[in-house]
Structure formats: structure tokens, C-alpha cells
Amino acid sequence: MKIVLLGTGGYHPNALRHTPCLLIPECGLMLDAGTGMFRAGQYLKTSQLDIFLSHVHLDHVIGLTYLFDVQQAHPLDRVTVHAGPAELAAIDAHLFAKPLFPQRPAMDFQPLTAEGSLPHGGRLTHFPLDHPGQARGYRLDWPGHSMAYVTDTTARLDADYVPKIHGVDLLVHECYFRDDEAPWAGKTGHSCITPVVQVARQAGVGRLILVHVNPLALAADPLGLDVARAIFPCTELGCDLMEVEF
Question: Are 12 and 153 in contact (CB under 8 A)?
């Protein structure tokens, strides 16, 4: 199974990163629909697309307005957006308000259920994350391999989501700040690097990829990977268009 990181930054795009969007091409499954969504058409392998949203802050949903370009590159028979009922209503009323976006692309809205089935015998579950306005993480399990997606939360060893991601082969987790910016993590509902890698180690995951990076951080190592790898060696910085086998 392969995941493509279409967008690995947070809040707004910069010269290096688009905002959150992850795609599993062979399943036609997307996690979040940030500005990186415009790239999906060149990777999709299916005639349908299921988009599961962590929450509906603009950096995670603005890509829904790019769907015309995605479908021009790769025609789709069906597009379904999965989120909470109030979140779907907010997208419909505001993102696709006619003065803002008068021609809505064809897509269905589907309220999330407790769990769902995935192609190739997989199962998807979700769990709440502590973030202003609330968010959710996802766990995806197939026979023999698994992954979890955790974004827009403040990582802590005692966070309720930690047992939910236990033992996954791949954890894609937000890391917005360096450790010296820790006070901002609590203020904004985001994470700095040491707590994230401590969570990965405690949860016994196989591999950690860091995403939702601060768009103002343009250094080659914006987070402090040496610190991270001293705690959890299998830590990588996610980059746009990175393809990850798990």
C-alpha cells in the first residue's frame, strides 16, 4: 500500500509545501483536502474518490473547490466527502456559498459513522483530537498493514488518542513547532517535536512521518530531527509529493 503526501504544510501554503492532503491512490481515498489537492488527478487509480476530513478549518478543506481540475486530469464517477453533519453543513453553507464559489463541483456528503470498510478488506476508524473547534484522527487497518493520521492537536503522552494508534506500521502526525516554540503549541492547538516522537515511541508505531509544518519555517530541517531521532529513530520529515510504502 502506498500513500502520497500531496500537502505537508499547515495554515497556508508556501514555496515548499501545500496545506494538508494525503492520498492512497489504489483505494481512491484521501485524508483532508488542503491546497495540495490539485495534484490528486495525476496519482488516482480509481474512478471514485472518498475524502475523509479531520476537521473543516480552511487549510484542510479549500481543496474541495479544486475538484474541477482534479476531474479534468482524472475523470471520476463519484466523489464523497465524509465528516460530521455540522461540518458538512458548514462546507455547504459557507465554502460553497454562491457569492464565494457559484458553481459547486459534483460531490456527495456522507456523515461519518463509527467505522467504515475500505477497499482491499480494510477498516477505517476515527477518534477525537483536542484542537480549537475539535478535530479527529483516523486509523486505517488492512490485513498485514496499518496507518494512522493525526493532525491539528497538541501531542501529549496522556492524550486520549495515543491508545487508538497503538502498533500501527505508519503514523503520519502533525508537528508544527520546534521545541523552543512549545508555548505556541498549547496556545494554538498544535504540536512541537519532542512530545510527538514520545507519543510515537509509547504507541509502538513502526515509522513516524511529520507533517503540518509551520509555513514560516523554510529551513532544510525546520523541526530538529536530531532531537527527534534520539528518541524515536524511525522519524522522517514529510515533504510534498513524498511517496510512502507501508
Answer: no
Per-position DSSP letters for 174-238, written without gaps between them = E--B-GGGHHHHHHHT--BHHHHHHHHHHHT-SEEEEESB-TT--SSSSS-HHHHHHH-SSEEE-
| Contact yes or no for 34/19 (Cβ under 8 A) | yes
Neighbour-count burial of 206, counting CB atoms closer than 10 A to its CB (0-12 exposed, 13-18 middle, 19+ buried):
middle
Q: What is the pLDDT of residues 156-209, one digit of tens each?
A: 999 999 999 999 999 999 999 999 999 998 889 999 999 999 999 999 999 999
Dihedral sign computed on CA atoms, order 52, 56, 57, 63: positive
Helix (H, G, I), strand (E, B) or coil at 38: helix
DSSP H or E stretch at residue 128: strand 122-129
**Distance from C-alpha of 44 to C-alpha of 23, rounded to nearest angstrom:** 8
Contact at 8 Å (CB) between 97 and 91?
Answer: no
* Bridge partners, 50 (sequence order): 29, 80
- pLDDT per residue over 47-69, tens digit each? 999 999 999 999 999 999 999 99
Dihedral (Cα; 152, 110, 126, 141), 10-degree rounding:
-120
pTM above 0.90, yes or no: yes
Domains (range + CATH), the chain: 2-238 (3.60.15.10)
